Amino acid sequence: AAPTVPGYSPGFKKPPAMLRLKRKRLRRSEAAAEAAPRPRDALPRAPSAPTRRNPFSSLDNAPRAAGTAQPREPPPTPAPAPRPGGTLPAAALWQLLEPDCEDKPARRAEPSERTDVFSLTHDLCVPAAVPEVPSSPRHQFPADWSVKTRLLFMSSQPFTWAEHLKAQEEAQGFAQHCRATETNLPQSLQEPKLSTELRCAFQQSLVYWLHPSLPWLQLFPRIGADRRMAGKASPWSQDEALQQVLMSDWSVSFTSLYNLLKAKLCPYFYVCTYQFTVLFRAAGLAGSDVITAAVSPTTRGLREAMRNEGIEFSLPLVEESRTRKQKNSEVSLEMEVASSLEVGSSTEDGEEAAPSDEDDDDDESFSWLEEMGVQDKVKKPDAISIKLRKEKHEVQMDHRPESLALVKGTNTFTLLNFLINCKSLVAASGPQAGLPPTLLSPVAFRGGTMQTLKARSITGKAMAQATYADVCSLEVSGPVLPHCLHTLTALLSAAQRGAFTAICYTHEPTAVFNTSLGTASPAQEQETVHKDLLKCGLHPRTLDQLRQHPTLGKSSIRFLEMKDYAYSWKA
Q1: Rg from Cα positions in the chain
Q2: Where is this region: Disordered (predicted)?
């Protein structure tokens, strides 16, 4: 038993004290050994390899021989300039927190020290199907039908004009939005902060309309939002009467939006459920002369229910993949059969006809079994097995971008009734139980609530060519609709003198809405429809962009840059 002496502590309780005592004894023994007379017959040792240093020791506790020169300390690194507001960059905080140790493991360079802020966008995640990036800048970027959750604009010019809007400017911006007032700014503004017209137009561009409106819940995005909504108050989850009231009110708002879309007074709107998203577009947008509705992602059960309701739809990405395979087979056949093109085409026709023959054989009777006399010994596949075998490829693409379903024309009205009466549209359990889908629109509708995107400007320091340069940024968060991206870039073009970059954060399930809708309508019909769309509430230049045929495919714009009033982008 250890003696109970005041101040006594075993060595295992206070190891630093024991280590200091051992180092002290070691230094004394080394000093005594050097002070002792050296024998005459002792020859100097041959030079050997340097002694390996203990990796767990530092400059303070490493044992040194007497007379050994102290290691030279590296010159002190100048502290980086503090950011406005007294904040230091991330690298400076690491320098203050980490001790000065010898042979410190090399840490990955902080972006703020060795990398330009604008070069961070070079390594953005690129989807599998990447469209061709334009080789030369253009004066307009393609329409992006995906919904962004966040935009980060960066420029060398400050964004002070977007801060602290006056009450009159905010009210004027709301009035301009409700009255669909067109704002035309000059190409460049010398004093953006003093431009009341710019500040009002900025407030106008941040407005969108939402239903339902529950301030304590974030109602977009809805896919994968269970964890974010967990623990929030939801009095309707156990009250069926309240659920019916909410769904009845939602049906009225949904029908109101469709009627506005049909009358070309609303350009588009989104229906966001907990499983899929639907984009309704008015006739004349995205190169189509009829109303279109894109549903993504879908499942075999949802597609089967739509077929049972008489809704005709297509799977454009599946058809595109099928066409691509046919073209690849043509190329391979031309390479294999080099004798003539006729032989290649005939072989191709034979290969294309084979799958349809197999499908027809599945539906035919098994009369050949009777001819062989084994019809009673062989178990025939039932109709369900044959159906599942045919739909195997459909099951494999469930919940994927390839499951995009496209509805056109009058079938969109049937889809409207189907969604209103579909019980699986609302979650039966979980944090979103009983909560109607979210409706997002750029214009007002019955039951809609006016909302605004959140915007804030930040000024910081970034390393650029061995010096610290001011980098100004403007962050816009919330459901950024397609028209908002175009309107904001048009305002920034004038306010930032035609030079800025933007990083776009996309809600991934909506990126597939940039898929082509098929054959474009004739130019005369497009002009007629375009005249009717002028009253939809969007700026004419924004409307011209949304009328274009989608070219981004399954991807969306991730990085957008304007230089000398010309755009370049990366998808």
Answers
A1: 34
A2: 1-88, 325-364
